[in-house]
Each structure stands twice: as C-alpha cells, then as structure tokens.
Amino acid sequence: MQTITFEFNGYEATVIRPENPNGRWIWKTEFLFAFDNAERELLELGYTRVYYKISNMYGSKKAVGLMREFMSFVTEKFGLYDKCILFGFSRGGLYAFNFAREYPECVEKIYLDAPVLDLRTWPPMGGDQSAEMCREHGISESELETYKENPIENMDKLFAHGIPLLLVAGDSDEIVPFDKNSGKMIEYCRDNNVDITYVVKPGCKHHPHSLDDVGPIIDFVCSQNV
Q1: Which residue in 88, 108, 95 sits closest to 35, CA to CA?
Q2: I need a surface site. Which of 27, 79, 100, 107 has the fewest CB within 10 A?
C-alpha cells in the first residue's frame, strides 16, 4: 500500500494505492477515514482509494467543477478507470449526488450513507454553517424553498442515467432526518419503479455510518451487474 498526498488547484488530495491495483477506484467525497471498514477491504481487493478535500462547499457548482478537473488529473496520473465509484457519507452525499447528476458518464456506481439530500434540513438554518452553505450556493436562506439545485428536487435527473446506487441509512437519524432525505429517495424510487439497493437500519441514528457486516457494500461495489 502507498499513500500519496498532494495539492491540486489549491486543495489537498489523497490517493491510497493498493499493492495490486485493478484500476477501479473509490472516491469518498468526505470523511476519508471515517467508518471505512468497507474501503479497507476493497483496498485489499485492488481498489484505489481517493479523496479530494474541498470541505465546506456543500456540493455547490464550484465544488462539482473542481471535482471534474480533479478526476481528469487523477485518472491520467494514476492510471485509473475513467469512471469512479462514489462514496457519499452525510454531507458528502451532496457532492456525490450533484457530481453524478452533472457528469453521469464519469460515475460507475454510487454508495450513499445517511446522505444530505435536502439543504432545508441540514445544516440547521440561522447559524454560521447555513450561512456558509448558502454563500457557496449563491442563494439566501429564504430562497432555499425554491432552489432548483437541491438534490431532493433532482431525483429524476440523477436516476435517468441508470447508475447503480446503494443507500444505507438509520431510520432514527437525529442530524439528517431520514424521512426528509434518505426516506424521500426510497419513496421516489418506489413510486417511479426505479431500481435501488437500500438498507434501512432500525433505531440507528446518524452514527455509526456503514454496516457492522460490510459484505453487502463489498458485493455492491464488486458485482458487475447490480
């Protein structure tokens, strides 16, 4: 294993290369080493782990543009497959969702874990974090109700591309409310006959992320047809 850190466009990046890389790669959009049992197993199977630290941009258009430039660089520099496997945990779900919606040709699969999908539910309105989020998206808090770039309003645009998606979430999430985020995605897929693989953890709050048995995550990533 080799861990390489560098700067790209002014932001820190990390690439963790396995001993026998297979060209496929996991791009975790936030919290690289948090709840990463699945990623560590996948590393042993030849998957490269990648992180680009553009934190506190909340999946904005600027963030998505930076991600596209970064992807072009790392795929060429490290000989990676031209499609990534996105892992979007919590606020990282904003980056994963918006990148896949904008550049579906760059995404092989998506794994979302307790993702933020509705900016009206997180971060809490009225605080410094919500003000920062609104600045990144170029809107005011009062404009959130009609904001067209909110993931929850763009399910059709994401799922139109048929990208396999795994969703894991706790039904008692106290930080990113299940019924207004992950639950809405599951409901959309049911109502529109969209294939989705999901695991709802009864009684689980926002933490812990992932699964005690990461087998379903490994199976999802490694399978050729999900």
Answers
A1: 88
A2: 79
65: phi > 0 → left, psi -120 to 50 → alpha, else beta; which?
alpha
Which residue, among 205, 197, 204, has the nearest Cα to 223 in the 3D structure? 197
Judge whether 35 and 210 are in contact, CB under 8 Å: yes
Backbone angles phi, psi at 126, to 5 degrees: 95, -5
Q: What parts of the chain have a pLDDT lower than 50?
A: 225-226
In this structure, are residues 55 and 30 in contact, taking their beta carbons and an 8 Å threshold?
Answer: yes
Pair of tokens at residue 201 = 């953890």
CA distance 14 to 152: 30
Nearest to 112 by CA among 168, 171, 30: 168
Structure tokens at 7: 């700067």
Q: Beta strand pairing status for 25-28 and 48-52?
A: parallel
pLDDT at 65: 97
Phi, psi of 201 (to 5 degrees): -95, 110
Report which of 112, 94, 93 is spatially closest to residue 149, judged by C-alpha positions: 94
Alpha helices in 79-163 (DSSP H): 92-102, 128-137, 155-159
Length of the chain (residues): 226
How far is residue 92's CA from residue 65's CA, in Å, rounded to a whole number? 15
pTM of the model: 0.95
The structural domains of the chain, ordered by start, are 2-222 (3.40.50.1820)
**Tokens of residue 178, six digits:** 């299940």
Closest CA to 179 of 197, 159, 200, 160: 200
> For residue 226, what pLDDT is reported?
39
